[in-house]
Design the sequence.
């Protein structure tokens, strides 16, 4: 990977972290599903650590929940590989 590519990846990761921190400041609930299927509250740093595990190729899908006025109130990160494995078992 070229040096410029690394800089682009780091810039986009930093922008993503800033976005998540802004959500947290606005009181938007950040959740991530776990092995028990019940989503748990997470911090922006925890989200970024999990998203970076696969060299920027995330296995997490975002689920945005809005209130009746269309304001974002909850953002859940769902592990799509785990959901697919569970579906295949049925």
Sequence:
């Amino acid at each position: 990977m070229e040096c410029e590519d690394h800089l682009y990846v780091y810039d986009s990761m930093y922008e993503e972290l800033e976005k998540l921190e802004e959500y947290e400041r606005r009181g938007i609930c950040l959740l991530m599903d776990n092995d028990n299927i019940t989503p748990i509250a997470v911090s922006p740093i925890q989200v970024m650590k999990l998203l970076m595990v696969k060299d920027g190729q995330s296995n997490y899908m975002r689920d945005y929940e809005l209130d009746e006025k269309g304001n974002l109130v909850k953002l859940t990160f769902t592990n799509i590989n785990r959901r697919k494995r569970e579906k295949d078992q049925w």
Q: What stands out?
A: Residues 3-89 form one domain. The longest helix spans residues 3-25. The chain has a mean pLDDT of 80.
